[in-house]
Amino acid sequence: MPTPNDPETPVIEFVDVEKRFGDNIVLKDLNFSVRRGERVTLIGPSGSGKTTILRLVMTLEELTGGYIFVDGEPLTHREKDGKRVAVSPKEQKRLRTRIGMVFQQFNLFPNMTVLENIIEAPVHVLGQSKAEATAKAHSLLEQVGLPDKADQHPMSLSGGQQQRVAIARALAMDPEILLLDEVTSALDPEVVGDVLNILRKVADTTNVTMLIVTHEMSFARDVSHKVMMFDGGRVVEEGAPEKIFSAPTHERTRQFLSAVLRDA
Fold first, then answer.
1. Which of 27, 143, 187, 247 is most open to solvent, judged by the fewest CB atoms within 10 Å of its CB?
2. Closest Cα to residue 159, out of 197, 180, 186?
3. Is the Cell membrane keyword given for this protein (predicted)?
């Protein structure tokens, strides 16, 4: 098992992970790790389990079997006296504060202003003062190109603007891990590039660990240290972006990339 506080310990580690929905096995015997500061992109057809992986790390879904570790600490379950037991809600919540997620459908609170959306978790989860959280929120809005939108409500913004607010909200928590779930799939094509450029800048200017699900192959090639091809809930191939995109060895990877790049 991984060791907490060891610099060699992965930031995220999946050990024998299984996830079922009823009789449907979505993930089976999944083992992989992500190093500190590493950016890993999960690619593969819809239904291959990629988003489920992110939702398990965010504890939005419950593990059926196996373990997930964050910095060597069990996220939801640990082994004790030879048995698999759940960690306490307090421990789980503590680890979750180190994880940020940007969703496909934005998930902003419609009854709150943009500023209120961004400062909600830093104030009520991290215990920051409202003044401190507000100052950081304004800085982040500047960073994502929306300095004049603080007092507006999400429904008055375009989809691309809402997604930029969602990115700012995730970054406001100073996450150690940032999960990106198809963040451009709900956007009009002409604004996809703006959102991806913001994320490229985050990748270039921070050491945040990223676990990414996307069908934007050029983005995956640009920002990833490692790309993992999923099919049927299993990793069929993994490697550096240049290897996966230029010389994949598995036939299923070649088929998938051919289809995706042709559609693009």
1. 247
2. 186
3. yes
DSSP single-letter state for residue 25: E
Strand partners, 181: 213
Question: Distance between CA 220 and CA 197 in Å, rounded?
Answer: 12
Average pLDDT value over all residues in the chain: 93
Using the 8-state DSSP alphabet, how is residue 111 labeled?
T
- In terms of Cβ atoms closer than 10 Å to its own Cβ (0-12, 13-18, 19+), residue 152 is middle
Query: Which residue stretches of 12-83 are H helix?
Result: 50-57
Instruction: Output the pTM of the full model.
Output: 0.92
Model confidence over 220-236: pLDDT tens digits? 999 999 999 999 889 99
Taking the CA atoms of 53, 211, 58 and 188 in sequence, report the sign of the dihedral they define: negative
Q: How many helices (H) and strands (E) does the chain have?
A: 9, 12
In 3D space, the residue among 145, 92, 142, 152 whose CA is nearest the CA of residue 117 turns out to be: 152
**Whole-number Å distance between alpha carbons of 193 and 190:** 7
Helix (H) or strand (E) holding 170: helix 159-171
Tokens of 139: 């800085």
Average pLDDT (202-210) is 93
Range 118-131 burial, b when 16+ CB lie within 10 A, else e: bbbbbbeeeebeee
Residue 59 has φ and ψ, to the nearest 5°, of 60, 30
CA 157-183-18 angle, 5° bins: 140
Structure-block tokens of residue 11:
């930031």
Model confidence pLDDT, tens digit, residues 101-160: 999 888 999 999 999 999 999 999 999 999 999 999 999 999 999 999 999 999 999 999
Strand-pairing partners, residue 79, are: 84
Task: Give the Cα separation of 45 and 259 in Å (integer).
Answer: 10
